[in-house]
Specification:
This protein is α/β, with parallel strands linked by helices and about 325 residues long. The chain contains eleven helices and 13 strands. A seven-stranded parallel beta sheet has the order 3-2-1-4-5-6-11, sandwiched between helices.
Length: about 325
Amino acid sequence: MLLTGVAGFIGFHVAAALAAQGHEIVGLDNLAQPYRRLKQARLEQLGSSICFVPADVADPERFAALVRDAAPDVVIHLAARAGVRDSLTAPFAYAEANEIGHLAVLEAMRRHAAEALLIYASSSAVYGVRHDARFQEIDRADEPASLYAATKRANELASFAYARLFGLRQIGLRLFTVYGEWGRPDMAFWSFADAALNGREVALHDGGAAQRDFTDIRDVVAAVTAIARRPVFPDRKLPHRIYNVCGGAPTSVAELLSMIERACGRRAVTRVTSAPPGDAPFTAGDSSRLRADYGIPTSADVAGGVERFVAWLRNAPEAMRLAREN
């Protein structure tokens, strides 16, 4: 298997799970900022369980050569510039990493691994600004609220075209606010817990009114590994399918902070600010399609997830230090 973004949060967990199942993993990552030192630490955790290749997926010729040489049966494409807010200040970096990178994957597979399966990461951000009702895969997704969301929707459309034109088998995963150990320090789970444990200030946008469908990394890993074993394509004429991967129970950011404070045993210092442009006020996914096709019951136990994460962070001082160095 070939896995892009192996040093990222999700890539690290997926690689570890697949390697434990006995799969040979060629993992690539360009180790770009932010959090380069943390990415290197994740690679150290993986050790010799994978074959690591330092490479940028947005280099089409280099990536094509990797696909040709590795001859993978499954490509898991998780490399991307993540997050809504940074896409406001670094739009060309997002366009290169997300759009050029995804196209490089499609072209390399079309030319050198046409029979392989592609599993790629999309995002709940493609649904745009909504205020109620659970998001379903059949819902419209043509009004992105950020450039990041637009790049992810562009990836889905390009994949649809390559499935239609060339029969390239692909499954896209719309991921909803994933949390877990070795996660992203800029996201609420890590930043709130770090603030509570170390007396740092928390910026609480709109008083924490936004609701998020927080998703356990273990559910994402379960989805990827199940799909890699046995992809399902109900429409035999179109080998492309999209799934929501979500916990299914939206939680307000204020509620999350309260859970984290309880788990840490101390209050955080908060500062109320206005919400940044592009932030969605509400996300809530319907994962019934994933459950029907693969039997995966995703977890909505955010409180339990908070307890596990805070316990890990308490015992990971080096990870906290590396996160602050970036």
